Amino acid sequence: MKLAYSFLVVFLMFFLVSCAKGLEKNILGKWQETDGLEIVEFLKDGTLKISRDGMLSLASYQFMNEKYINIKFNTWEGEDSKPYTARIEIRENELVLFKREEEKKYIRLQIQKKKADL
Predict the structure, then answer these.
(1) Taking Cα atoms as reference points, which of 8, 9, 11, 19 lies closest to residue 65?
(2) 113: which DSSP letter?
(3) Could you please report the per-residue DSSP string of 27-90?
(4) Could you read off the pLDDT of 3-27 as tens digits, one per residue?
(5) What residues does 31 pair with on adjacent strands?
(6) Is the predicted pLDDT of residue 80 greater than 70, yes or no?
(7) Rounded to 5°, angle at Cα 101 from 96 and 104
(8) Three-state secondary-structure class, residue 110
(9) CA 96 to chain centre
(10) Which residues of 9-48 are buried (b: 16+ CB within 10 A; e: fewer)?
(11) Domains assigned to the chain
């Protein structure tokens, strides 16, 4: 029985890591908020670029698991900002970020291409 339980735990851990890796690949590229005011770009190196009203903000992001992402904004003074955690969903070409009671929806503008594809 212990062996079956251990196998199940290992399988579930592998499954959760696989799901998170798929999400990490699917999020790459540019997304435009459905109201058209904000464009976000997720880069492979963990950088997040946010453009709104002609202003560019930089942040870093890191996946916690297959449903949650940590976002930490860079400050002008070089100090670390307090990161926040948001729930994330990707449905085909739609990205949804849930932060507390707020929900932001984005549509895909461009998929980040690999160097081999260029």
Answers:
(1) 19
(2) P
(3) T-EEEEETTSSEEEEE-TTSEEEEEETTEEEEEEEEESSSSEEEEEEB-TTSPBPPPEEEEEEE
(4) 444 333 333 333 333 344 578 889 9
(5) 40, 108
(6) no
(7) 25
(8) strand
(9) 10
(10) eeeeeeeeeeebeebbeebebbbbbeeeebbbbbeeeeeb
(11) 2-111 (2.40.128.490)
The C-alpha torsion from 87 through 90 and 94 to 99, rounded to 10°, is: 0
Contact by Cβ (8 Å): 105, 94: yes
pLDDT tens-digit series, residues 61-74: 999 999 999 999 88
Asked if 42 and 50 touch (Cβ cutoff 8 Å), the reply is no
Residue 69: both structure tokens together: 């992402």
Tokens of 32: 């435009």
CA distance 50 to 42: 9
The model's pTM is: 0.70
Task: Reply yes or no on whether the pLDDT at 47 is more than 50.
Answer: yes
Tokens of 24: 């990490």
